[in-house]
Fold:
Amino acid sequence: MTFVSPAFTRRSLLRGGAASAASLLAAPAVLAQSSKARNDPPTVLQIVDTAPSQQDVAKDFFIGSLAAWQDWSARGGARGRTVAHRKLEVNTTTADGRTALAELRDNPSIVAVSGTVSEAAARQLRQYMVSEKLALAHAAPWLQDIEQGDDHTFPIFANRQAQLVYALKSQSLVGVREIGAVYASARDRDLYQEGVSRVAATLQLKLVELTGTGDPRELGRRVSAQAPAVMLFLGGTPELARFTQGLADQARQRYVIALADVNLQILRQMGASLRIPVIAAQVVPLARSSLPVVMSYRATLARLFDEPTSSLSLAGYLAARYTQQVLAGIQGSIDRASVLAAFQQRQAMDLGGFRVAYDARGSYVTQSMLTADGREIG
Structure:
C-alpha cells in the first residue's frame, strides 16, 4: 500500500501565534474536497473536530496520525497498493457537521474512517452511520464510549468510563470519600454526568457537582470553601486553564483530576495556575517511554515535523499504525466490505509494545501529573 498525502511542515502552519490551532486544522482543507471519480484510490478518512474547545487536542492528534501515514508511504506501505489518507473537518458545535458527513454516503472510495477526534465527533459519526445504514469500519476513535454490540467501531484506547473508574478508584483507595464533579458547560454536563454518577456510586463516592455557564475562571472562584479538595474536571484544555486560575484566587489548596482529552503540554501555555496540581488520565504510554513504538514515533515526528512530542500526537500515531496493520493484512481488493471484514476479526496486535486486544483485560490507563515547573511526570 502506498499512502497519498500532501507534503507540508507544521512550522509554517504555526506562524501566527494564537491562531496556530485554527491554522493547522484549516490548512489541509483542500483534502476534504474529493472528486468522486471511479479511479479514486481506496481512501481512509480522518474526521477532525474544529470546535474551539477541541482544537488543541485535534491538532496534536492529527499531526501524530499524519506523521505515521507519511512514514508508511516513505517505507513503501504494503503490497504496492495505493491507499489515500484524507482529513474531513467537522465542527460539532454547529449544524454543519452532519452535512459534511454526507461524503461517507456519497463517495464509495472511502473504505474506512480512522482516528476520529474528538469524542463528540466520534459520537456524531456513529449516529450518522446508524441512520444511513453504512457498513463502514470506524477504527481507533479518540475516547468514544462504545455501545454494546457495535460491530462497526474498533476502539484501541481506554474510553471515558475506563478512565473515570481508574481516576476515581485511585482517589477512593487513598481515603477520599467526597469528590467535586466540575462540568465546564451545560453541554459537558449532558455528555458526561450519567457516566460520572454511575462510577461514583459504584465506588461509594459522594459527588458535589458544579456546572459552568460562562467564564471558567468565574466558575473556579465560585467553588465554596466547603467543596471537596479533589475535583474532577470535565471539559477542554482552555476551560481547565481558566478554571485553575479561578481556584488559585482562593486560599484553600485544591487538586484537579482531568481525563485524557486534556492536553497537559498546552495547559501551562494557556496560563494554568502553577499553584493548582493537575493530574490527568493517560491512555497511551508516556512520550518518553523506551517502548519500540514510542521510539519510532519520536524519530518519525522529529524527521517530518518541527513539533514537540505529546501524549495526544502519540495517540494519533498509534491510531494510524493500528489501521495500517489491519489494511496490510487484507488479501485481494481493498474496498468497504473487505476492510470491514478485516477489522471485524478483532485480532490482538502488539504495536511495538502497545497492546491492542478486544478481551476482558481492558485497555491501557495510567495517570500523569503536570508539575509546577511545567514537567509531566507519571
